[in-house]
Amino acid sequence: MVSLSRSVLPALLLGGAAPAAVLVAGTAQAQSVRSFDIPAQSLESALLTYMRQSGVQVGYEPADVAGQTSAAVSGARTTGEALSQLLGGAGLTYRSTGGTAVRLQRISRASSGTQLGPVRVQADAGTGSARTPIETAIGAVPGYRATLTATATRTDTAIRDVPQSIQVVPRSVIEDQAATRLTDVLQNVSSVQLNGTAGNRADNYTIRGFVASRYAINGFPLSSAAERPEAFLDLANVERVEVLKGPASVMVGLTDPGGVINIVTRAPSRTFSFDAAVQGGSFDFFRSELSVSGPLNASGTLSARATGAIQTNGGFRDEARASERVFGAGALRWEPDALTRVDLTADYVNQKQPFDRGLYADENGDYPHDAGNYLGERWSITAAHKLVLGLAAQRQVTPWLMLRATGRYTDATSNDSNAVDLQGLEDDGRTLRRRVTTRTEAPEDLTMRLDALADVFTAGIEHRIMMGVERSRGDFLFRSARANIGAIDLYAPVYGTTPIPVTRANARYDYAVRNWGFYLQDQISLGEKWKALAGLRYDRAKSFTDDLFNAEQTRTDDDALTWRAGLVYQPTTAVSLYGSYTKSFRPQQGQLVDRSPLDPEKGEQFEGGVKLDVVPDRLSLTGAVFQITKQNVATDDPTDSDFSILTGEQRVRGVELDLTGDILPGWSVIANASYLHTRITRDNVFAVGNQLTGVPELSGRLWTSYSVQGGALKGLSLAGGIRVVGKRQIDLANSFTIEGYETFDASLRYAIDEHWEASVNAENLADSFYIEGVQSESNLYPGTPRRVVGTIRTRF
Question: Could you tell me which of 180, 437, 207, 513 has the C-alpha nearest to residue 327?
């Protein structure tokens, strides 16, 4: 007989989400505390609310609960305590069926079931500003250590149950480190490096050796028609940053094989909260941000959050203009009953900064070791603005079935005004030719998803099934005009080239993509110790390029079937051993020199690892070994950079370690180490065996913080860390290497009371010169010199 159970399977934020899932009552994980608010009502309705608020699946026979009335449950309790109190005098108990599920049984025949223990009443967590927040898969993390994720499966899932490496950097780490860039945050994750900023427009990264051209926000990758983010990410509205390692096409669609970065934004809360910060520091840096959230009606069914930030930064690049950014975000949540949720979100960013290609190296690998060496002009500017709208709705239509619809619309424009590009050196090795480009890029994107999520018990096996369809359409307008300008001395630049020349059009095209995706995923609990994950996705991707400048048109039509499969073995509650296989697929924008379209990139990964609680419920370690192979790799054609060539196949083998959590009360750590062995394995241009561009063989970071727990110094926190990055290759020809570096950081923070704190953070204490991002010999991005930032923060 097949029996059905109801459980809330949360989406990412734009898809709506329920509180986090925990392991079944009766296991060690059942002692995790969650917040409950369940009025007395019919038992079946109360069980639906319980499962939504706990994430625990409850299977039952309809006749066992028919006509029964539940007791009320309110406040912070473990899932086992809450279920025991809810059942009250209903004559029912429960037993574990594995994974995140329990089965109700009548007490008269429940000798093998879990006996209900006494109820322990606790204060309502999170109602006071000093209380520890209760973790959810898409919400705040108490401390440094996250145990739940919605990125890997688009359902609430314990990180230990995911057969892939996934790391989470919560907001608490972002604030402790006074991070102001996404790059600062991602330093806390193994095998992630800054690749470049595309002229100081937006960041992109390498993950496990491969460039990840786009990241995702709340599970939706950025515009499918753009090759990079539209603007820099502002951290004011970021709740957590998650990195899922390896191919992730089954979950997020057309992506790169190294992995996906998913930004989870801050959601509205049912209780009032307010936080704000003012920062100031080196290089004329100033920033202010605030976020306010709470209910909009007495019942709390309607809640909202508003977030804003203003930032200016003089920067450390000589003669470059200051950067400016204004950011605003809003979120509205409607929960008319326990089974329905609707979310509306919007955010807007407007930025203006110097266009900056970084430093330039000659053919021998020599370049200025001066972070202030700016090779543009003060009138070289790039600016962008972006609007993002999100709508999501979910409804639990039956005890075992939930339907949800999610969508995102993006409209952005970036303008480069007389952007100075670097063209090459004269024979003297120091006179650098330059040109200016006036450029407009305008991406627009609409992506929609429809999901059905079902929980099924079959022959004692628990299935968590998700199936759905995704439709996206992206459009990209590109206009460009160029002119040559005067050269500049590479080592002793003299600025002030005038007059600014009149540019002439060199490119004008419209690019459109239309994608369909169909997917199916099954999370399977095979008893207490074994879990399996299987996913299948079919993508159909069409693109159309109308080259208005050359009066040419190009069409592509690609499709692929990708899949992933993984298995987890948990001999104890503190150890998870896993293995998995995953694939990726991504169409490529660009042409060969004969103007034929590029074949899509394809990737596959084999991974095995361990997830270990070094200190139970406090300190977690993830160790992984993997191999990723990427085919149909595109790079600039050496005879004409406006076209591309497919360089064959590349492979990365690696070992990673990530450690997060508390060593002792008040002593927190987040650390990582990575070894990557990168190679070209097949190519018709570059030598087989060459290493990949900009990827260090060894890298890692350690950050640790200690808060005094008592006495006269209570409220004082000391923190510090080191980052180490090895040498990197400048190009696929391995022409020369860029040297590695180490930087040291420190922080001093004092909590004046439960509402106010002051801190000072120092970055790159030794004031070392280093290259942070390596894209090519003409795109070397220097790291920040010594920088000190002071912060005043308040919370209510």
Answer: 180
Give the bridge partners for 537, in sequence order. Answer: 519, 562
* End-of-domain residue from the set 109, 126, 158: 109
Q: Take residue 741 and report the two structure tokens written for it.
A: 């570096």
**H-run or E-run covering 185:** helix 182-186
Whether 207 is covered by a domain: the verdict is no
Structure tokens belonging to residue 39: 């009025």
Sequence-distant (≥ 6) Cβ neighbours of residue 539 within 8 angstroms: 249, 253, 254, 515, 516, 517, 559, 560, 562, 585
Residue 422 in any domain: the answer is: yes
Q: Strands 101-106 and 57-59: what pairing?
A: parallel
CATH number for the domain spanning 779: value is 2.40.170.20
Range of the domain at 59: 21-109
pLDDT in tens, 67-85: 788 888 888 888 888 888 8
Q: What is the rounded distance in angstroms from the CA atom of residue 101 to the CA atom of residue 22?
A: 9
- CA–CA separation, 574 vs 383, rounded Å? 49
H or E element, residue 515: strand 504-526
What is the tens place of the pLDDT at every residue in 190-225?
999 999 999 999 999 999 999 998 899 999 988 878
For residue 233, being part of any structural domain is answered with no
Q: DSSP string covering 290-355, please? A: EEEEEESSTTSSEEEEEEEEEEEE--SSTTPPPEEEEEEEEEEEEEEETTEEEEEEEEEEEEEEE-
How crowded is residue 227: how many other Cβ atoms within 10 Å of its Cβ? Answer: 18
**Nearest by Cα to 171 from 203, 127, 139:** 139
> Tell me: the pLDDT tens digits for 226-279?
888 989 999 999 999 999 999 988 888 888 899 999 999 999 998 999 999 999
Last residue of a domain, one of 94, 109, 124: 109
CA distance 70 to 36: 14
Residue 96 lies in a domain: yes
Count of domains observed in the chain? 2
CATH code of residue 43 = 3.55.50.30
